[in-house]
Each structure stands twice: as structure tokens, then as C-alpha cells.
Predict the structure.
Amino acid sequence: MQADSGGAPTAGSGLSMVGSTREDVGRLVLACPDRPAILAAVVSRLAAAGANINTFDQYSTAPEGGRLYLRSEFLLKDLPDRLDDLRSRMEEIAEDFDMQWRLEPATRRKRVAIFVSRYEHCLLDLLWRWRRGELHMDIAAVVSNHPDLEAEVAAFGVPYYHISVTPDAKAEAEQHQLDLLVGKVDFVALARYMQILSGEFLARVGAPVINIHHSFLPAFAGAEPYVRAHDRGVKLIGATAHYATEDLDEGPIIEQDVRRVSHRADPEMLTMIGRDIERTVFARAVHWHLEDRVLVHENRTIVFWPG
Amino acid sequence: MQADSGGAPTAGSGLSMVGSTREDVGRLVLACPDRPAILAAVVSRLAAAGANINTFDQYSTAPEGGRLYLRSEFLLKDLPDRLDDLRSRMEEIAEDFDMQWRLEPATRRKRVAIFVSRYEHCLLDLLWRWRRGELHMDIAAVVSNHPDLEAEVAAFGVPYYHISVTPDAKAEAEQHQLDLLVGKVDFVALARYMQILSGEFLARVGAPVINIHHSFLPAFAGAEPYVRAHDRGVKLIGATAHYATEDLDEGPIIEQDVRRVSHRADPEMLTMIGRDIERTVFARAVHWHLEDRVLVHENRTIVFWPG
Amino acid sequence: MQADSGGAPTAGSGLSMVGSTREDVGRLVLACPDRPAILAAVVSRLAAAGANINTFDQYSTAPEGGRLYLRSEFLLKDLPDRLDDLRSRMEEIAEDFDMQWRLEPATRRKRVAIFVSRYEHCLLDLLWRWRRGELHMDIAAVVSNHPDLEAEVAAFGVPYYHISVTPDAKAEAEQHQLDLLVGKVDFVALARYMQILSGEFLARVGAPVINIHHSFLPAFAGAEPYVRAHDRGVKLIGATAHYATEDLDEGPIIEQDVRRVSHRADPEMLTMIGRDIERTVFARAVHWHLEDRVLVHENRTIVFWPG
Amino acid sequence: MQADSGGAPTAGSGLSMVGSTREDVGRLVLACPDRPAILAAVVSRLAAAGANINTFDQYSTAPEGGRLYLRSEFLLKDLPDRLDDLRSRMEEIAEDFDMQWRLEPATRRKRVAIFVSRYEHCLLDLLWRWRRGELHMDIAAVVSNHPDLEAEVAAFGVPYYHISVTPDAKAEAEQHQLDLLVGKVDFVALARYMQILSGEFLARVGAPVINIHHSFLPAFAGAEPYVRAHDRGVKLIGATAHYATEDLDEGPIIEQDVRRVSHRADPEMLTMIGRDIERTVFARAVHWHLEDRVLVHENRTIVFWPG
């Protein structure tokens, strides 16, 4: 579970979206070994505090002996004043059930740093959704190894950091990036960032990193997926959003989508079609991450879809 | 809620599918006005009885003042011997919360009557899935206004009733059908049955009726949807499974799907493409109905998808 | 056939996209009564001129007695100098076969006016794609009945005209719009323009008008489709791009797409999901129109897809 | 190009389907180096013979110096009596243009052998579509390494050959199969046949072999794709129909499709969902192969979709 990132839940969707602008919507996310009494323990704590449960998604990885993942949104009048009380009620059971858990107001916004190189479609899509209120987050920084998109980003009132990355000075560049990020962001979004982050960077950044890969993984992991898709003659091309791990393109998959193509589509056209899939898949992954809908079990994700 | 049909839950899917062959998987379905304490009341009843909750889907139609719909599958050792105890625990709270509810072993199979005319694709698809073990139901009868498919159905060991329907003797035919059905089936599946059932029939049959319509309703309600889709030049054709009501093609929608078509597709080809959509959409609707995943709120459905 | 709009073909996709930056790619579009000798007549004219045919899409509305629609892209060395010759070769057969036809260099760009109100997603998507080189067009103007998006549009270097539309002075406003458009644009794109254009406007503007409607027409024609989709409980929502005609939401459909939704999605969330469908469907329709891939037969379109 | 299989075109779809029952619909398929004069040469031969071209699909693998693939359906009165004349007209140009070509009446039916093991869904789907007239082919034999499906196949009036395949006697079994097939079928369809065919078998059978693989290749090539899809946590599962080659799961892809799944789907459920994708993708591939819509260029296919 990626709960230790310090990330805070933000606005929900659907029913909860209505409530999300209100101060009194809370969100509980937890993971623990599955045991018979656990749901009753959790639900009764919420009920005793007067919470009205709006959504209550749960998944157990096995009928018996599995691990339980749970996410709930609830209404509790005067939530800001009641949070301490509710948290102490949860603490009563957390140790017994060996829970990892987090309970926060839905109004709390996650802070993100967006990494980008020169392709702007995934970045622009996030900025635009953020401005129109679809993505309840604070953008701490856009970080790029190129200066090209500075003016574009400035128009959104977001700070832009150009940090060159050269083979000789990669460690130095990563240190520069870490100085900007550590302790200041809740997650990092790689919006077609064309540099490979080192294992050390991922270990030290202390926050989940979401990447968008331009193929339906595990097919065409690695470089030039559209060229290879064309060479292999596939009839569908796709994109995959996943958490970055040290094993390139092997991290837990959050979301994927595909579109049909024909023999007529050359790599240039696949690239154009692919941009639409990439930005949509990426935005969904960020959206769900922001709302704490994505929980990680081993190398897979549990995603409690909003709609 | 269509809970009064006497229909019983059968096999689940995913995790619950594993358990479904076991005697000790139970299923609870309920609907009631949403109130803060309700989930705690239900979950604690299940916990007190020793049940281990596998799935727990719930939906409230509004953040406050809505109606709650809930479906849970759970493991309870020696379920057949424990059912009475568990039901009486539920009865303790059912009246206070004004619940409609049903609690049954997942091994109980719903009984169905399938109506068909001459197009056999939806019927055969159900029969194949049933024989292969995908659909945990007992087929009480196949009823047709034509004799054409008798041998086909006989090969599956299912009784076939040919009941002619003429304009002059429609009431008589429906009476004949009702004699076969009332009290003997839990639901009726209209597998491209080309006769309109009267309001009186629907009122008297006392069981939900699932219909498949060959368009993406509400577009092209009524007759000849593929011809009209062609005339209107749509780029997608579809099918809709819904509960039949007295208002033709207006009942609650259970499932829909579409496929892309081009200008090249004439009505004959749309019909061919449409058959694949129809049978798949219909089979999903029946599958979900069998597992009590489809709850009706006003003229809409809540569908707790299996996978 | 919308060939009389004076619109000129621009860049193609796929193979032709490669060639489209070259001066020597030409495009022929024609419609006429289908007769046995016609393809031979056309192909031999192209061959006699030395053209190398890259794509040759054709469709006849009936095996015999139908109407033929044809679109071809070809390579012809020194095309600009050869156009007159090629056109006179076509004229030799055009009258005999009763053809409507157009033959132009693929480098010629159509001029568009984009109409918008306050929702910016369809507009921005077009502007992004245009700036990135996906849409080979010249944007003559953005016209809006609100001043809100002026700065946004200015950042793209595109002129913005704010023309208020009030019930009392609608005719005056339309006259103002016509003054801007007539003879200066090849087509108009309504990017969620929330005013109904009069039949007189459509008659006088002298160019095709592409509209995006936020439902899978013919379902939910008219106002508030997402609210009505929610009320009807559909499981798919969609969008439709079509040529505007005097009959509101009844014009020839160019493109449609849908996405799956569940009972959890309220009208607000359907609207959010719908925005992604709208902008994608709209951009595809504009893209295909720009490349002369969309031909109109009665109230339907023939779309020669690029990929 | 797989034109040397001796396979004959059968019924078309859409417009051509209407004509396909008529004796006077012909089909021309060809491949050759792309040169400027070629289309004119072909079209004028057809026109000179009096043929009315209904469809005329072509694709060149490069704007210059590519290879041309072409497929056309046409009406020619008294076709059976005119075939020799038309073929000799084609022969006039075939050598000059270095063409591989085939010209046949659309009424000629390809002969197929279907291989199957124990999973019956792909087999039944083909048999059912064949019986209802969707697939215009003659089924020469169903061949299985198990006796299980004999009665099922017999009900369709199709001969069933049970040929056991043991590790010790695989060569012998393949010889037995070849005795049944060589010279008697135009193609082989592997409907979830769970044995690997040897390179020698593929070389000697002298007919294209279509296989259905239960993943979206190239992801999860090899064994147990649904288990591996579950372990990798993909959000889409799929199936791929391809021509079998000596390199397992590496042959030219004809068709692919996918469906969305969630974390809830265990391998058993993925298998169930996958069956629907497999049978649909497989049936499409067979359908298009029957109508000579699938042409092979290097390791990719050109598919001229029907609708």
C-alpha cells in the first residue's frame, strides 16, 4: 500500500463529488490481513462517531487468508473538529488488526510535481483538467529537461524548472530534482518524461511516481513501441499508466486502454492516434490516485473505479 | 427491488465463483431508506454469526435521504444449518430499517423459462453457457410461438413448448403460457421473442422478465431498429437488455453495448453484426440477474459488476 | 456531396501524410451516378497524366443503379504546373458521367471559423491539435457569444470575435457573423456553441457547418442530454459530430463514440466523462472533413477512414 | 500473399453479400510491385469485359517503390461463361506487372478442416455461423485429439476424426492428419487446438492455417496467458487470430480484440470472459479469410474490412 506517501485524499466523483466541496466529507483508506470481524470493527467505529457512509469499497485478495483493501467516503458533520476523535477510535483497532490506514478530509489536496520533456499533450491535458477543477491537486512544479514548454506552463501560473540531464551529470541533475521535491510533493507524474529515473532517485524521492508508457504493457516494453507495434502488425495500439519502479516498465499497472488501427497506419500515424490514448489513460490514473482509489497489492493494483 | 420474485442467488463470479460450488457461501441482498447506522447493523449481524464477508457492494442514491442498495457474499461454515439463525438475526433489524431483503445460499439455482421465436442466436448462447457451467440456473422450459427450434432445444435435454400466438387467440395463448410459468419459474428471459406480451401477462407472471432489444435504447425503440439505424446513418449499432414493463422498450436497462459500423454496412449486414452484440449483452444481463447483481431503483438499475 | 463549399483538401494521414508536405500530392474527390465504365475513365485519366495513385477509396450506394463516391490521393511530379492539364482531362469525362468533382493539391489548407460559447474543451482541443500540426487548416476566426475565452484564444495568435446574441437581436448578430464568414471560410466548426443557428444563417453561410452534440444521436436529441441519459439509466454515454441542417440534431452523422458508465455516475460526472468523448469525436470529424474524407449521400455520410 | 492455397473466394458482405448469391459476382485479388500504370491496366481489363466494379480496395506499402495489394468485387453478366475470357485478359498484363493474382466467382466456397481439443466455444461458434449462412465454406472435417466433441459435431452433419496425439507418436498422428487434408482443404482453422503443429506439418499441409491465441499478442505469447495476465495485473485481456508459422505465436496477426477487467477477476473469470473474445475474434478472422480480405505482406496483414 502506498499509504505512507503522506498523500491526502481530495475530491471524489459521482455522489461524493457533490459532497467533495463540503468540509464534512471524510475518506478512510486501509489495508490489513483479512479477518472475519474487521468490517464490523471499522463500520461500527464510523457509526459510533456519527458518520454516514456514502461509499464503501472493499476487496479481499482471497476468500480466506487474503489481504483486505478498503476505501470509504463518509459524511460527518463538523468533520474538521471531529477528526481527532475519529482517528483515535480507529487507533483502538488498528494495532489489533495490523492495519495500514489513513483518514483525512476529502478537501485536502495532494501536491504533485509533473515531469515532462518535449511532448506536451499529457502535460497540457493535466493542466487543463486541473484548471477546470477536474483534478483536485496543487501543482508544486513542472520539471523538464528542456526549456521548450516554459511559456506554456507559465500561462497556467505554475512554476517551471528547467533541469538539464546529460549522461555525464545525471546524478547531479537528479540531486537538483530531489532538492525540489523531497518533503514538498505527495506524488510525481511523469508526463512523457524521456529520461530514465535511477533506482536511487525512486528510493529517495519518498513519494509514488506515476508514469505513462505508450503501449499496452507488457507488450512493447522499452523504447519505440509505436515502431515496434507497426512492425509486428498489431490491430490495436494502447497506452499504460503505472507506478514507476526500479524495473523499467514493470511497475504496478493502474490503467490501460487501446484503439483499433489498420494496416494503413504507419508509425507516424500510430503516434498521433496514440497521443489521445496516452493523455486519457494518464489523466485517469492521476485522477484515481488523487482520490486514493488505487491501492497496490504486490505488483498489481486494486482500483476502486469512480463511475 | 425485484426481490419478491422468490428468485434465489446462485453462483458468483471472481472470488465468489470459487466459493460458489461450496455449500457455505451465502448471499445477502437488501434495499431500504439510507440511514447512518444501517451498515453497522448489517455488518455486525453477519460478524456476530461468524460470517467472513467476501464482497460488500453498496450504493446510496443520494448523500443524504437516499435509498440504500446492498449486496454481500460471505463465507459461513455449515451455512445450511446456520441459515435460520442468520435470518432471524436479520429480522431483528429489518423492520426498524424498513428493509426489503433476501438471504440465501449461493448454491440455490434460479429457475428460468426462455421465450424464443425463430432467431436462435440468443437462445443457443444461453444454452451453451448453461451447459458449460457459466450460468447457474435450471431451465424449466423453452417456450416458442414456432415449432422450428424444437430439435435444437431437445438436444440440450430441455423441454420445449410450442404455443402458437394468433391475433385472435392471444389471450388464450398467454393463459397457456401462464399455466406453465406461474409459481414454477423465478424469471423469464425473452431471447428475441417477437410477440408483445400484454400488461396483464406481465402482472400475472409474478417474476421479472428480461428482454433483449436490438438497438442502443432509447434510440430506435420499436420495430426494425437495424433498418432505421441504417437510414439514420449512425456509426455505432448496439443492443440493450432490460426488464420488460408494460411500456414497450421503456423498462429499466440492465446492460448495453455497441459496435462501430461504416457506410458499407447495409441493414442485412447490421443485422449480422448486431446478433453478436445481442447475444453477448443478453447473456451478461441474465448472468448478473442470476447472481442478484441487478437491483432496480425507480426506472434505473444498480448493477454490481462481477469483474 | 458537400463539394460546392469551395473547401480545399489538405494533408492526408497514414501514407499520404508522409507525402502531404510535398507539393506533388494531389487529391481527387467525386460523386456521380454509378456506371460500368466510370472507374476506368477516371483511372486512365490519372494514369495518362503520369499520376501514381496512392489511395483509391470508392463506394457505390447500390450494386446497380447506385451513386458512386470516390476519393483518391496520388503523386504527380510538378503537380502545381500540371494541375490545369489534369483538370482539363477530367473535364473531358465530367459531363458525360454527370460528375460533381474537385481536384486540388493536398497542400491547400481549408479555412475554418470556430464558434464557441463558454465550454472550452472542444475549442482548446482543436487549437492544440492545430498548433501541433495534426489539423492542416487556417483558423480565420473564433466567434463567441461570450467574451470569456478571448485571452485563451489570443495566446494561439488567433483572432477572437465576441458577438453577443440576444433573443431580440438574433438576426442582427447572425448578420454580423455572416459578414465575417461569407467567402472567407471553407467550413464552420461549432465547438459547443450554445445558440441555435437559424435556417437562414445556414442557407447564407455557404459552407458546411460541423456540430458536436453531447449524446449518441438519435438518442437524447435536444437539450440536456446528460440529465436525460441519467434519468433513463443508460449504461453508455456518447457524443455525435454531424453536419448542421435546419432540422436540429438531424443532420448527417460524421462520427460517434461512447463510453461505459455505471449507476454511480450522476449528471455532473456524466458531463465530465462526456467532455472527453465530445472533444475526441469532434476532432476526428474536423480532421476527416479537412482531408475530404466525408461525403454526404442523402442524410448519411460516407467516411473514408484514414487509419 | 497466401494466394497459392487454391482457396476460392466465397460470399462477400454488405453490398456484395446481396450479390453473393448470384452467379454473376466475381472477385479479383492480386499483389505486385506498385507501378503507375497498374490500376489503369486492371480497371480497363475489367471494364472492357463489361464488369461493373462494386468494391475496389487497394493498398500500397509505400508511396513509391512499394508493393500493391488489391481486391475487387464486380458484377459481370453470365460470369461462369465469361471467366475464361476475363482470365485471359488478366493474363495479358500479369507477367508484365509481375502479379500474383486470382479471379473466381464469389459463389465458390473454400473447404476447411477445423482442429479442436476439448474447449468447444470456438468450434461451436464456427459451426453455428456456418449453419446460419454467415460463413460460406464447406467443412471437410473436424479433427480432434480427443473424442469428447464427436456427438456435438455429428449433430451438424460434419465428419469428426479423432486422432490421438501422444509425445511418442506425434509424427505418426500428423501423418494421419495430413492424409486427411492435403489437396482436400483450402485452409485449416485451429479452434483452440492444444497441440503444437510441427514445422514439417505446416510445410506439407499446403494451405494457410489460422490459429486463435488467448492474449493480445505479442503480450503473453506462450502458455497460460490468462494466469500470466492476472499475475501482471493488466486491465485489459484479449485474443489474437493469426496465421500459424513455425515460430510459435509469431505469425501475421489477422484480428485482435480486448475487454476491460478489474482486480476482481481471477484467472478462472478471465478465462470465462476471454472465451467471448476468442470466439468473436476467431470468427472474424475466418470470415475475412473466406472472403479473401486478408493479404499477407512480410509478417503483417492487410485486411480489407467488410463493414
